[in-house]
């Protein structure tokens, strides 16, 4: 963890400051979300009032309304991602077999992967020590990384999920054979609001790292253009 050298008092002070900032940020996001929902509802009513747009004027007006609706939906998606980012704090941890979590996630994700021509291949080590995790947040981590892999393989491909134990830690790796990333992208990919995807919120990978680090874990990435990507998550094993 980055604050490993801090004293307990310093760590508690920083956690309290972070909790206050997260609370304020979440409140601000809610204040924006409410009027945004009202705007979206009124746009729907306006589009209904136009009915079948028969005149050139009505068609232009309907197109403008649809563009604003698209932007409203994009802002709502950004706010949703930001709220997820801001809420990562207190964890509901339970001692868990990571292999069970991975298998359940694969069962959930498999139909989506198949629709996009992606084969999901698990390679799970036997007799893993348990890890203490928030299961819902772990599912969020796996989903974000799997969706990133899917987007890097627009023509289909292979996604491997591997687990192993090493030096008192439990590792999970997600490996794809997609487009990969260059060094500049790898350097910035965990920065808040950085995204290479059109319309991306830039909060997916920062949220992943935040969740992993909240569990006392680390996340690293190996990737090269045209060579695919490997994310490695390392979590402390339960003693």
What is shown here, in short?
With 239 residues, the protein is an alpha+beta fold. It has six helices and seven strands; from the N terminus they run ααβαββαββααββ.
In total, how many domains does the architecture comprise? 2
DSSP helical segment count: 6
CATH topology call of the largest domain: Heat Shock Protein 90
* H/E element sequence: HHEHEEHEEHHEE
Detailed description of the structure:
This protein has 6 helices and 7 strands. The protein is of the alpha+beta class. The protein has 2 domains: 80 residues, Helix Hairpins (Orthogonal Bundle); 144 residues, 2-Layer Sandwich (Heat Shock Protein 90), CATH 3.30.565. Strands 2-4-5-7-6 form a 5-stranded mixed beta sheet, with helices on one face. A hairpin with a 2-residue loop joins strand 4 and strand 5. The longest helix has 43 residues. The N terminus is likely disordered.
Task: Give the SSE layout.
Elements lengths: L7 H43 L5 H32 L5 E4 L1 H18 L2 E7 L6 E4 H17 L5 E10 L2 E8 L6 H6 L15 H11 L3 E6 L5 E8 L3
Parallel strand pairs: 2-4
Antiparallel strand pairs: 1-3, 4-5, 5-7, 6-7
Helix pairs in contact: 1-2, 3-4, 4-6
């Amino acid at each position: 963890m980055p604050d490993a050298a801090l004293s307990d008092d310093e760590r508690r002070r920083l956690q309290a400051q972070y909790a206050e900032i997260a609370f304020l940020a979440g409140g601000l996001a809610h204040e924006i979300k409410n009027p945004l929902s009202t705007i979206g509802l009124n746009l729907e009513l306006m589009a209904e009032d136009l009915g079948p747009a028969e005149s050139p004027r009505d068609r232009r007006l309907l197109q403008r309304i649809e563009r604003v609706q698209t932007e409203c939906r994009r802002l709502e998606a950004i706010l949703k991602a930001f709220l997820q980012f801001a809420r990562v704090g207190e964890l509901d941890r339970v001692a868990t077999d990571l292999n069970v979590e991975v298998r359940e996630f694969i069962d959930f994700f498999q139909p989506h992967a198949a629709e996009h021509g992606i084969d999901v291949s698990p390679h799970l080590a036997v007799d893993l020590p348990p890890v203490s995790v928030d299961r819902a947040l772990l599912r969020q981590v796996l989903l974000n990384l799997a969706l990133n892999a899917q987007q890097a393989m627009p023509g289909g491909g292979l996604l491997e999920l591997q687990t192993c134990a090493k030096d008192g830690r439990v590792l999970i790796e997600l490996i794809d054979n997609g487009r990969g990333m260059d060094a500049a992208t790898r350097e910035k990919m965990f920065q808040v609001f950085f995204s290479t995807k059109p319309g991306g919120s830039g909060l997916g990978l920062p949220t992943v790292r935040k969740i992993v680090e909240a569990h006392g874990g680390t996340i690293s990435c190996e990737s090269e253009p045209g060579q695919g990507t490997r994310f490695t998550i390392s979590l402390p094993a339960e003693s």
